[in-house]
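User: My instructor asked us to take a sequence, write out its structure as tokens, and then describe one feature of it. I'm not sure where to start. Here is the sequence I was given:
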Amino acid sequence: MTNTGESETFLQKAIQEQGRGRVLDTIQEIQERHDAVKDIEKNLKELHQVFLDMAVLVEAQGEQLNDIADNVGRAHSFVNRGTQQLQTARVLQKNTRKWTCYAIIILLVIILLVVLFTVKPWQNNNNNNNSSSNNNPTPPPPPPAGK
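Assistant: Let's start with the prediction itself. The structure tokens for your sequence are:
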């Protein structure tokens, strides 16, 4: 009403009907209400801005929460893969120990066979028996006495 120009006619009509003092009180009251409405409007704009700021913060934190959830999921998969690899390593380690023991036993048998065939202790016993009989020879028969 204040923007359209009808306010002047409205005020003149009100002054004629009720008197100047009462109209001024009413105008003062209207002005106070208008100022209060302007304050409320200002407060609502500030509140709206607070909500917009909160929405931005919530969205940013939501992205951070999504990033955290993604990282936790990846860490979980890494832990699972690591656990599987440790179990595989344990099995391989046991197999390696078993085959190492087999290899050591086979190597010892081969070394024993090489030593036995190189030294040939069974031939030394026969040679010792023959040589011991040669070391203690029986005396040769005496020469014939009558010639």
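For the description part of your assignment, you could build on this observation: The mean pLDDT is 83. Try explaining in your own words what that tells you about the chain.
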